[in-house]
Design goal:
Blueprint: H1 8-13, H2 42-53, H3 73-84, H4 87-92, H5 109-122, E1 132-139, E2 142-143, E3 147-150, E4 167-168, H6 173-186, H7 196-199, H8 213-217, H9 230-235, H10 240-249, H11 264-278, H12 282-291, E5 300-301, H13 330-335, E6 342-344, H14 346-357, E7 361-362, E8 365-366, H15 370-376, H16 389-394, E9 402-403, E10 421-425, E11 429-434, E12 439-445, H17 454-466
Antiparallel strand pairs: 1-2, 1-3, 1-12, 4-6, 5-6, 7-8, 9-10, 10-11, 11-12
Helix pairs in contact: 2-3, 5-17, 6-11, 6-12, 10-11
Length: 468
């Protein structure tokens, strides 16, 4: 924070309305990246920010002399030029976000070191409760060098974790799938307000005919999380088409928009909508429209094309042990499940976080519109008049991205508010982004999250406390 304000306030002070050259159109002290700030105007805006922060201090347009007492020029320039411009070269070269020191981006190094120490402790030795882990933290379009800990697998004699390790993301996959759906909304090919049956005519029946696409994106459709025969299908190495067919025929347990229940089946149907509209398999769409434009070379929906030795092996739940269908099997790794089939590295996914915090911009390229990012990262349960107030207030969901359920058992942390958005993965992951601090936290691991979810909360709390 800069003098109690978001660093984006500085850009808000010099923001010009498109078409009104040379005239201050508005002052928005909480302007978020990409809002009313065309990329073509970036050089002019950067110049203004440098003038504000450099030798010739300017007054705040409202006459506030506290502008002259801003913290260091380095932090201010990191928040402006770093967020929207400095990512260009690194993204194109697949280097992740530009690397920074903690001091460069307003992170307290000794506080952050507590997280490193704790992860080192948890991943040490053959009986470590968390065999392997990674932590990536960033802010203002830059990132600290990711830290890796422990082993490449849960086996006591597993090799040390590789510098190029790729983690199984599990359900952190879902926001990527919904982002692909929102691309079709932007292109005029999909409406969230349309009945699901407009795109999937087979989806019909009680509590299904009135379902809207919005209900799929917010887990408010009434569909179950998984198919009742999910394990049997995976044991038989069933293809994705079988899961889609069964999801289309699955019952909805409540009228859409009247409650909220996490649903992997809703994500399967969303991926099928993307496939039918685009004519591309979902893994191909993700690669061509999401992964490649961001310059991510170590991310994919499914592991095909990657060296399997790079993939971090997960601690398996009991039902997966002894079979050839679990998270560590070639079948599941190459399956490319839209509900949980993404593989990535901390550096790669840091680019995704940076893009979201920059309002859809990455390396001078716009992946998503600022309007889309706003809708995806604010509580869309508010749009449902029949949604019970306690659910709407305490279990907020955006479009694909979840907001922090502060005070609830599934909260990601006690020091991050309800405006923070992200997602978790059952294989041991949590990712969150804080629009107030413009910071993000990525925790990847290969321990079973359900056994001790509090571990990730501890790390989140430490990281949140390190943002100045």
């Amino acid at each position: 924070m800069l003098g109690g304000r978001s660093p984006w306030a500085i850009l808000g002070f010099v923001e010009f309305h498109c078409g009104n050259y040379g005239r201050l159109e508005k002052i928005n002290p909480w302007a978020r990246p990409g809002q009313g700030m065309p990329a073509a105007r970036l050089p002019r805006i950067q110049s203004m920010v440098m003038n504000i922060s450099g030798r010739h201090h300017r007054r705040h347009p409202t006459g506030n002399r506290n502008m002259d007492r801003l913290p260091t020029r380095r932090l201010l320039l990191s928040s402006s030029a770093g967020m929207l411009a400095a990512t260009a070269t690194a993204a194109k070269a697949n280097m992740g976000l530009p690397e920074a020191s903690p001091e460069d981006i307003g992170i307290h190094p000794r506080r952050l070191a507590r997280a490193h120490d704790l992860l080192e402790q948890w991943t040490k030795g053959p009986d470590a409760p968390m065999p392997g882990a990674a932590l990536a933290v960033g802010r203002f379009g830059k990132a600290l060098k990711p830290r890796l800990f422990g082993r490449q697998g849960p086996e006591p004699d597993a090799e040390p974790i590789r510098p190029d390790a790729m983690f199984y993301m599990a359900s952190v996959t879902k926001p990527v799938i919904y982002s692909c759906g929102m691309m079709l909304v932007e292109r005029g090919q999909l409406n969230l307000s349309d009945p699901v049956s407009r795109y999937l005519p087979e989806y019909s029946g009680k509590n299904k005919d009135e379902a809207r696409v919005l209900h799929l994106f917010t887990h408010a459709s009434g569909l179950a999380d998984e198919l009742p025969d999910n394990t049997e299908l995976r044991k038989a190495h069933a293809p994705l088409s079988v899961f889609v067919d069964k999801a289309l025929k699955s019952p909805a347990s409540f009228a859409p928009g009247t409650s909220q229940s996490y649903s992997s089946l809703a994500t399967i149907l969303t991926a099928e909508i993307v496939r039918r509209i685009s004519g591309m398999p979902i893994d191909e769409f993700v690669r061509k429209e999401f992964v490649d434009p961001l310059g991510l070379k170590s991310t994919g929906l499914g592991s095909r094309g990657f060296d399997r030795a790079r993939i971090v092996r997960c601690t398996l739940p009991e039902y997966q042990k002894g079979g050839d269908f679990g998270w560590n099997s070639r079948y599941w790794q190459e399956f490319g499940s839209p509900t949980g089939g993404l593989f990535s590295t901390p550096a790669d996914f840091g680019v995704v976080c940076g893009m979201m915090l920059a309002g859809g911009l990455s390396g001078g390229m716009r992946l998503l519109s600022a309007a889309t990012v706003r809708m995806m990262t604010t509580n869309r349960l508010d749009d449902m008049p029949e949604m019970p107030e306690p659910i709407r207030r305490t279990k907020p969901w955006g479009l694909g991205w979840r907001l922090n359920h502060l005070g609830q058992s599934d909260s990601w942390g006690d020091l991050i508010g309800r405006e923070v958005y992200g997602h978790t993965g059952s294989s041991g992951n949590v990712v969150w982004m804080n629009p107030a601090t413009q910071g993000f936290c990525i925790i990847f691991s290969n321990y079973l999250r359900s056994r001790a979810p509090w571990r990730l909360v501890h790390i989140s709390n430490i990281v949140a406390s390190a943002f100045e």
